[in-house]
Design brief:
Strand content: under 5%
Oligomer: single chain
Largest sheet: none
Structural class: mainly alpha
Radius of gyration: 26 Å
C-alpha cells in the first residue's frame, strides 16, 4: 500500500513554490519527484489546498449496469437456470452493455442475488442387477 507524504513536507514544498522557486527546484531540495511537486502545486492552485487524496477506488463507485438492475433481477426471477455468461450476453444484446462475468458476479452478489453456478450434469442411470 502506498505511503503518503507528510502534510508538513507538502507545506514546505508549496512554501518554496509560493516564494518563487520552480516546482522542480523545490522537488530537488526536498527530495521528492518533480511530478509529485508539480501535482501538489496544481492541486494548491486549483483547489486552494494540498491534501492527500485517498488511494484506490472510491467506495460505492457504482457500476455501469446499476441502471439495469431491475431488468437483471427480472431475468433471474423468470429464468432460474440463467448463467452469468448468458446474462452478460443478454445485457450486451438487449442493452448494449459490455460487462465481464467477474464484474457481473460482483454486482449481482452485492445486490444479494444468486445464480446457478454451473451447467447441469446428466443424472445417474439406475444400477441394474
Amino acid at each position: 500500500m502506498p505511503q503518503y507524504y507528510s502534510r508538513d513536507l507538502r507545506q514546505r514544498v508549496l512554501a518554496e513554490v509560493r516564494a518563487g522557486r520552480t516546482a522542480r527546484a523545490a522537488a530537488r531540495r526536498f527530495q521528492v519527484s518533480r511530478e509529485t511537486a508539480g501535482r501538489w502545486r496544481r492541486q494548491w492552485r486549483d483547489k486552494g489546498q494540498c491534501v492527500a487524496e485517498p488511494s484506490g477506488r472510491r467506495p460505492n463507485h457504482g457500476s455501469k449496469i446499476e441502471p439495469y438492475m431491475g431488468w437483471v433481477r427480472t431475468q433471474i426471477d423468470t429464468c432460474p437456470d440463467l448463467t452469468l455468461k448468458r446474462l452478460a450476453e443478454q445485457l450486451a444484446d438487449v442493452h448494449g452493455v459490455q460487462i465481464s462475468e467477474a464484474q457481473l458476479s460482483r454486482v449481482v452478489r452485492r445486490h444479494g442475488l444468486t445464480f446457478k453456478k454451473r451447467r447441469p450434469t446428466p443424472t445417474s442411470k439406475p444400477a441394474t442387477m
